[in-house]
Write a structure and sequence with these properties.
28% helix, single chain, three-stranded antiparallel β-sheet, 4 helices, globular, alpha+beta
Amino acid sequence: MVIASTNPPNLASDTTTRCTPDEYRAMEETAEERHEYCNGEIIAMPGGSPAHSRIAVDTTTFLNVALRDTNFQTYNGDLRIWIPSFNHGTYPDVMVIDGEPEFNGSRTDEILNPLLIVEVLSPSTEAYDRGEKFRKFSIARRAIAGNGKCTMGLKGRSSCTA
């Protein structure tokens, strides 16, 4: 199995060994670093910086305070989102769920129903996060919301409405 250290759009499909979601999950349970799973390919996620971590913590804290006494729950990057329509698993920096999390089958580490996904952009991941990853999140969000719409706005700001 080959683990790529580049973003998925840069992977050469003819040189990457494919694996099943179950093989990925087994590897991820003991891995020291996190990886995305993208339709058979495993992609190593780059390490974070102090600034990246601080922004993610501040965002999580803000959302926890703002959503206190509501039905919304805030989660950090320890839980994976699974996007079945793309056979894709990834760890967002922050996510919010309305009510109880919907897990992927019997797994308790893969969420299917995020309402809000926050990605802290860094120079090494910005193009992928704003491009292919955002597109997948947007399509998954629309599937959850029914007729909802997601848009990428000025300077990468996004919004989703149900």
